[in-house]
Amino acid sequence: MGLDLxxxxxxxxxxxxxxxxxxxSHAGARRRRSSDRPQGNASGDLPAPPSRLxxxxxxxxxxxxxxxxxxxxxxxxMLTLAVPARTYIAQRNEFNQLKESNERLQQQTEEYKSxxxxxxxxxxxxxxARKRLQxxxxxxKPIVIINPTRDQQQAEQAEERQRKATPWxxxxxxxxxxxxxxxx
Length: 184
Hints:
Number of helices: 6
Structural class: mainly alpha
Distance between the termini: 137 Å
Order of helices and strands: HHHHHH
Radius of gyration: 56 Å
């Protein structure tokens, strides 16, 4: 005989087919309902503390569902506004860069305008013609002074040192044997 849970027990108090009374068959075999179970952790000795959200909701008189909807709506608004905010910041940076570029171009334009005005001046044109093209006015005599470059001066000084280091008879033979055009 197995354990009788009272499923086939008549409600009027009559004995079951096995001859036991309904009260005897239900003794200790009663099922626990979910409301009869102790609340708390798995061991059953302490009740579970309520969550922070539940405590907040109890203090404010707001349901957890309302708080969840508000948080979800907040996240939705942040995600919705993130793209326009990023676009606004990018456009503002681009605007600042274009503004700086425009200022540089305006400075360059002013510089070119001043150079154009300067090059239209007859005194400047005359000065540049004298300096660059070495032109002179009628009646003036040009004098050209040729200054040797530093490399040319150093080469001449090296040749002079070499000439002084050689004996006089070699210098004489060199002067007689080589034509004047090929000498250094």
